[in-house]
């Protein structure tokens, strides 16, 4: 596989995630979209790491950091989702409009 | 080559289930399929250690946590689905991004593949770099993870008060 093929694959994955973030009204659905986008970024980094970079350990460490940060982000997001559900028994983004200008 | 194509098809199919499924539990299963495909892609890109971490943390941790979140909330069962307008606009924005960045990628010339020695690809090298060159980032990430756990417990962990709506409201104030 060429590097272009891997990057196109990562781009398609990213765009599917972007569609999920924009189209979903469910908070967990939005979180799924964000995870897909983060994974697309990881695939992109590893593709460049495999095909172009001189120091292959660096790209893999970057991806490990992305995975770690994604875990932290998912924990916070899920706890916010639970808190929102507890307060208003709904996780529809259309109901979250206190800060609407 | 064929393996890479199969992995890509698997990942994309899982991702489409993940964003398209009506029931949110099905969407989480689609995300799991997609993450498994991404882990296989990492393996094909000569990083089996990262692939193992992907399986452990994403499939074993994040998707399971999402399933728990669905079990503890309604999972959006009693809510209306997305309107056609919203989905069309989202698809339009995603397609715009796809085409514009795709043109950039296809128009870029990448250099030749470098000759990295096998030593540089070893897992030992990841460990050495984590504790030497990237030591500060590594420690910072552990602090971030600790803060995320404490923050998640603080935000979500109002166990007893939540049974009584009035007390839960006071807790929020």
Unreliable segments of chain A (pLDDT under 50, ≥5 consecutive)? none
Mean pLDDT of chain A: 91
- Strand content of chain B is under 5%
Total domain modules of chain A: 1
Tell me the name of the CATH class of the largest domain in chain B: Mainly Alpha
Order of helices and strands of chain B: HHHHHHH
Task: Tell me the quaternary state.
Answer: heterodimer
Question: In a few lines, what is going on in this structure?
Answer:
The complex is a heterodimer of chains A (101) and B (173). Chain A has 101 residues and is an all-alpha fold. Chain A has helices at residues 3-23, 27-51, 56-88.
Q: What features would you describe in this structure?
A:
The complex is a heterodimer of chains A (101) and B (173). With 101 residues, chain A is mainly alpha-helical. In chain A, 78% of the residues lie in helices and 0% in strands. Chain A has helices at 3-23, 27-51, 56-88. In chain A, helix 1 runs antiparallel to helix 2 (27-51) and helix 2 (27-51) packs antiparallel against helix 3 (56-88). Chain B has two domains: 1-75, NADH-ubiquinone/plastoquinone oxidoreductase chain 6, subunit NuoJ (Four Helix Bundle (Hemerythrin (Met), subunit A), Up-down Bundle), CATH 1.20.120.1200; 122-173, no CATH class.
């Amino acid at each position: 596989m060429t590097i272009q093929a891997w990057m196109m694959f990562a781009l398609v994955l990213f765009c599917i995630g972007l569609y999920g973030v924009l189209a979903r009204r469910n908070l967990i659905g939005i979180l799924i979209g964000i995870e897909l986008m983060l994974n697309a970024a990881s695939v992109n980094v590893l593709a460049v790491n495999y095909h172009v970079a001189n120091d292959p350990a660096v790209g893999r460490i970057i991806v490990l950091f992305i995975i770690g940060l994604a875990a932290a982000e998912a924990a916070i997001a899920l706890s916010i989702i639970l808190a929102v559900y507890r307060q208003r028994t709904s996780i529809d983004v259309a109901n979250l409009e206190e800060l609407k200008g | 080559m064929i393996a890479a194509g199969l992995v890509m098809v698997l990942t994309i199919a899982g991702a489409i289930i993940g964003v398209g499924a009506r029931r949110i539990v099905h969407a989480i299963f689609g995300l799991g399929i997609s993450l498994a495909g991404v882990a296989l892609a990492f393996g094909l890109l000569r990083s089996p250690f990262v692939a193992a971490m992907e399986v452990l943390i994403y499939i074993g941790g994040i998707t399971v946590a999402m399933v728990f979140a669905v079990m503890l909330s309604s999972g959006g069962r009693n809510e209306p689905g997305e309107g056609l307008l919203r989905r069309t606009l989202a698809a339009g924005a995603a397609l715009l991004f796809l085409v514009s960045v795709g043109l950039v990628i296809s128009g870029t010339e990448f250099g030749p593949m470098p000759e990295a020695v096998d030593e540089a690809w070893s897992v030992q090298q990841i460990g050495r770099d984590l504790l030497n060159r990237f030591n500060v980032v590594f420690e910072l990430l552990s602090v971030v993870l600790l803060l995320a756990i404490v923050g998640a417990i603080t935000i979500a962990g109002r166990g007893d008060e939540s049974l009584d709506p009035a007390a839960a409201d006071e807790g929020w104030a």
